[in-house]
Each structure stands twice: as structure tokens, then as C-alpha cells.
Design goal:
The complex is a heterodimer. By secondary structure, chain A is an alpha/beta fold. Chain A contains 15 helices and 13 strands. In chain A, the strands form two sheets. In chain A, strands 1, 2, 3, 4, 5, 6, 7, 8, 9, 10 and 13 form an eleven-stranded mixed sheet that branches. A two-stranded antiparallel ribbon of chain A has the order 11-12. Chain B has one domain: Alpha-Beta Plaits, CATH 3.30.70. In chain B, strands 2-3-1-4 form a four-stranded antiparallel sheet, with helices on both faces. Classes of the chains: A alpha/beta, B alpha+beta. Chains A and B meet through helix 1, helix 3 and helix 9 of A and strand 2, strand 3, helix 2, strand 4 and helix 3 of B.
Chain lengths: 454, 94
């Protein structure tokens, strides 16, 4: 039988160490909504989402209250809209009407965000894909809850450099459109290499075409819990350190597994996966960077950071995999800058640079995330940064991503405020040398060789 | 699918005074909630109690008991929480 010590430990994790379920995400296939008439398509989408997800908010609240575990977000992901809208949309404006529908449907069922305003273009772009990508600035500007993503590369197909070039321009357009709000709409746009079909986290969640009609995916979070557990083993050897991280990750993931199963039961939708990611928030004590400091670094970014992060990421997976029957999504430590107080401190202390962050993304998910850069950064430079990150994912057979925020009208030394869970970010300097001629080349970078690995 | 268990963990935390257990137990017996296990400790003057109860035959729904006990806690100056047992079971048992 459970004893008082165990009960106290669990409740302390929730009350003092920010343990929470970061998101319950319902993945909904919209393939059955496809119609060549735009109005009918929009009606079908609205009906489908508001039917499948109608109890989402209520079920979230019920689980929260019965188990005493906060569920921070209730979200929806849908089939990439470029596929769904291809038959009906003749222009980017047509696509943007689907964004309006998604926004309205998400609001109607009380979902915080809805992801899947996406295109999968890792090898080539159809006309519909390109129209969707070109409609992103319009779509993000006039909706509140819609998140957009694009898969630009994969280990099997290489990097679609035409799409990389286009996304550099699109990102600047999104920044320009929301410049009166510190280019905040860029937070809702992410580009991937090897994007997972079952990611519950935003902005990159979409319901992949390999998935069933509807599915429940859950993302847990617990950097604070790991940090506190490591405080008790200061100075111990790596074996003890690793064991402690694994045990903690096990406990945290079990909560995710329980919530996922319960949500699946109450909503009558099959359980998909638990995403093991360590997802920080700006709340004090809820930081991945603080874990790295607890492991023994003065600041995140100090020499040794990549090794410490690789170890942390691997142990979290090893502990988490045993705790859940199905693991998927991104499943790694997130290292966003603005959403992590320890990262913000490291930037402000001059301990971490974009180049070090890039190196860190080789050993953990998910990529250059929530990084504010000067608003006068050229589109080709942004595309160059994206291409670098895509190359890391492609060669290392892992997911990588870029969520950059060029803040129009601001430069290095300024700070931007995103509000709430998104935190604030000091603007980081970008390498000022040009890659324009490289980015202006047409076509794609071929897939890498899968043998002779060195 | 039916819920596996009706076991609920009640935790009471607060300043130690006379009659905390009596009041909580009084409420539970009034609503035919069966107590399976009680343990308590006092940590630096703070009262810390955990009960495992079975709500199978309770005459009030889980969320009503939860609300009532929370209100009772406020009245006697302690914090009372009700949670389904599974969250602890899953976290601490393989």
C-alpha cells in the first residue's frame, strides 16, 4: 500500500517543483473532410473538430481535479492543411480561410492552440504546398490559436533548399506583420527536419498521415523535479547522477502515461504516445539550464554543456521509456531560450551563443527554439541558419527544428517580452557574414549516405 | 472500461490542533466512506496526515466529497486534498 512518504513526495513535486502535464493533444485526421468546394471543406473541418474534441476542456479539468495534477494546455493537431485544402484552395487567401475555421473550432471546444497549418515539403513542393506556405503570414496574423509548421528536410530525402529559401522570406514577413507586438507571431511558426507525426507540442504539432482517425498524445514536463532530485546527489559520481535522472524521469513519465490513458478512456479516443520531453517554462525552478548548472556548470553554455546535455537527454529517455507503453513525439530535452529562465540568464551573462546552442541541438531535441534575433537580419541569413539546423537533423537521423523570432525594430541589447508561458528573451547576435549566393542556388541537397559513418 | 479502483488518498496538512482527525473521520463515516489506512506525522509543529479510503459505497460523488472536505479544511484551518490513488500507485510502483 502507498505510504505517507510517497504521497508527500508526489505532492511536493506538483506543489513546489512545477511537475505538470504540459499538454493533452488530440490528433484529428481531416482527410475525410476533403472537398473541392471551399465552403463545404470549411464546414466539414469545423464540424469534424468540434465533434471529436467537444469534451476536451472538460475532460482535462476532470483529470486535473481527480489526480491533483495540473494540465497546462489542451490542444488539437490536425492533418497538414496543405493536403486537406489542396483540392479546394486556388490561392493563399483560400488557404487562410481554413486557418480561420481552425481558429474558430479550437475556440469553440476550449483548446489553447491548434497545430497543423502545415506542409510536408522535404523533397518537393506541390502548388498547394507553396500556396499554404505563402499564406502563413496572413493566417498567423488574423488567428489567435493556429500554429504553423513545415517539414523542409529529412534523412531519407535530403533538404529542400527551395523551401528553406522561401521560409526565410516567409518568417520575415510574419515578423513584419506583427512588428507592433515584437514580432510575436513568429512563435507560432516552426520548421523541421524529420518532423514526427505524433508530436503533441506546439508550434510543431500536426496529425501525420500515418496516424489513425483520432489519437491522444500527451507531453509531460518536469525540469524542476529533476533539478531537485539532483540537488540531493551533489558531488556524486556519474553512475549515481545517471541513476537519479532515470528514476526521476520514470516517475514523471508515469504521470503522463496515467493521464494519457485516463484521457483516452474518458474521450473514447485511442491512446497514441507519451512524449518524454523535458519542457521548461519561465517559472523559477522549471528550467533545463538549471539542471545543467546543478550537474556542474557555472552557466548553460560553458564548456562541457554539450556532454552534460547529451547525458541528461539520454537518461531521461532511458527512465521514461520504461514508464510508458508507447513513447513518441519529440522526446528529448527542450532548450528554448525565452521559455527558460536559466537560458535567459546564460545569454545575459554572455555564457551562451547561437553557435553553442546549435551544437547542443546535435544531442537533444529540438533545435534553435524561441530565439530572438535582430529584426534587420536578412532573409538569406535566416535561411542559412535553418539550412544548418536541417543538416544536423538530416545527417544525425534525428528531429531538429528552428523557431526563430526576428524582432523588427530591435537589435542586440534589446529584450522582447512574449508574455505568459513564452517568457521574454534578450536578442542574440547573429553571424554577420553573408550566405546569399549559397541560399540562392535552386533545388535540393541530396540525402546523405547511410553507410561509412564517421 | 470501468475504473479499476475507488481508492482515494486524502491528505491533510496544517497547523496541529485538537480534533482534526475526528472531524475528517466524522464526515467520512456520515457519507459511508470506508477508511482503509491512516498514518500521520508532525513535522516542526505541522500536522501531516494521509488516509487511504474506499469510496465504493459512498453516498456522494468524488468531486462533491472533494469540495466538502476542502471547505471543512478551511473551517478548521488546514488544507485537505482528495486525489485518486492511481497517481501515487503509478508513480511509485512498477
Amino acid at each position: 500500500m502507498i505510504n505517507i512518504g510517497e504521497v508527500t513526495e508526489t505532492n511536493k513535486m506538483v506543489e513546489q517543483e512545477n511537475l505538470d502535464v504540459r499538454t493533452i493533444t488530440i490528433g484529428i485526421s481531416l482527410l475525410e473532410c476533403i472537398d473541392s468546394d471551399l465552403q463545404r471543406l470549411n464546414d466539414n473541418i469545423y464540424r469534424r473538430i468540434t465533434t471529436v474534441a467537444k469534451d476536451l476542456a472538460e475532460v482535462g479539468k476532470k483529470i486535473e481535479s481527480e489526480y491533483g495534477i495540473p494540465i497546462v494546455n489542451k490542444r488539437i493537431s490536425v492533418t497538414p492543411i496543405a493536403l486537406v485544402g489542396g483540392a479546394a484552395c486556388k490561392s493563399p487567401e483560400d488557404f487562410a480561410t481554413i486557418a480561420d475555421t481552425l481558429d474558430a473550432a479550437a475556440e469553440a471546444v476550449g483548446a489553447d492552440l491548434i497545430g497543423g497549418y502545415s506542409a510536408l515539403v522535404s523533397k518537393g513542393m506541390t502548388k498547394a504546398d507553396e500556396m499554404l506556405l505563402r499564406s502563413i503570414p496572413m493566417a498567423l496574423c488574423r488567428t489567435k490559436r493556429v500554429c504553423s509548421s513545415a517539414n523542409l528536410a529529412s534523412t531519407k530525402t535530403g533538404i529542400n533548399m527551395d523551401a528553406v529559401r522561401l521560409m526565410g522570406e516567409i518568417l520575415l514577413e510574419v515578423a513584419e506583420q506583427s512588428k507592433d507586438r515584437d514580432s510575436v507571431d513568429c512563435m507560432k511558426l516552426v520548421v523541421f527536419c524529420n518532423a514526427p507525426d505524433d508530436n503533441p507540442f506546439m508550434a510543431g504539432a500536426f496529425h501525420g498521415v500515418t496516424e489513425a482517425d483520432a489519437v491522444i498524445n500527451v507531453g509531460v514536463s518536469g525540469p524542476g523535479v529533476v533539478k531537485t532530485a539532483l540537488e540531493a546527489v551533489r558531488g556524486e559520481n556519474f553512475e549515481v547522477l545517471c541513476e537519479t535522472i532515470k528514476k526521476t524521469a520514470f516517475k514523471v513519465t508515469r504521470v503522463g502515461q496515467l493521464v494519457a490513458q485516463e484521457a483516452s478512456r474518458l474521450l473514447g479516443i485511442p491512446f497514441g504516445i507519451v512524449d518524454l520531453s523535458l519542457a521548461p517554462t519561465p517559472a523559477v525552478g522549471d528550467s533545463v539550464a538549471d539542471i545543467l548548472c546543478e550537474i556542474g556548470l557555472e552557466y548553460a553554455g560553458a564548456p562541457g554543456t554539450t556532454a552534460a546535455l547529451a547525458m541528461l537527454n539520454d537518461q531521461v529517455k532511458k527512465g521514461g521509456v520504461m514508464a510508458s507503453s508507447y513513447v513518441g513525439g519529440l522526446s528529448g530535452a527542450f532548450i528554448p531560450v525565452s521559455e527558460d529562465q536559466g537560458m535567459i540568464d546564460a545569454v545575459q551573462a554572455g555564457a551562451i551563443t547561437l553557435e553553442k546552442l546549435e551544437a547542443m541541438t546535435c544531442v537533444c531535441s529540438v533545435g534553435l527554439d524561441m530565439i530572438a534575433i535582430p529584426g534587420d537580419t536578412k532573409a538569406s541569413t535566416i535561411s542559412g541558419m535553418i539550412a544548418d539546423e536541417m543538416a544536423l537533423g538530416m545527417v544525425n537521423q534525428k528531429t531538429t527544428a528552428c523557431r526563430l523570432i526576428p524582432v523588427i525594430g530591435k537589435g542586440v541589447g534589446d529584450t522582447v517580452e512574449f508574455g505568459g508561458l513564452f517568457g521574454y528573451a534578450p536578442i542574440m547576435p547573429v553571424n554577420r557574414f553573408s550566405c546569399e549566393d549559397f541560399i540562392n542556388r535552386q533545388g535540393r541537397i541530396p540525402a546523405p549516405i547511410h553507410s561509412f559513418k564517421n | 472500461m470501468e475504473r479499476v479502483s475507488d481508492k482515494v488518498i486524502i491528505t491533510v496538512v496544517g497547523k496541529d490542533t485538537v480534533g482534526i482527525i475526528a472531524k475528517v473521520c466524522g464526515y467520512l463515516s456520515e457519507h459511508t466512506v470506508n477508511i482503509l489506512d491512516i498514518s500521520q506525522t508532525i513535522v516542526s509543529g505541522f500536522f501531516n496526515m494521509m488516509m487511504i479510503v474506499d469510496m465504493k459505497d459512498a453516498d456522494r460523488a468524488f468531486h462533491e466529497c472533494q469540495k466538502d472536505l476542502e471547505a471543512l479544511g478551511e473551517k478548521i484551518g488546514v488544507s485537505i486534498k482528495c486525489q485518486r490513488e492511481e497517481i501515487f500507485e503509478k508513480m511509485h510502483r512498477i
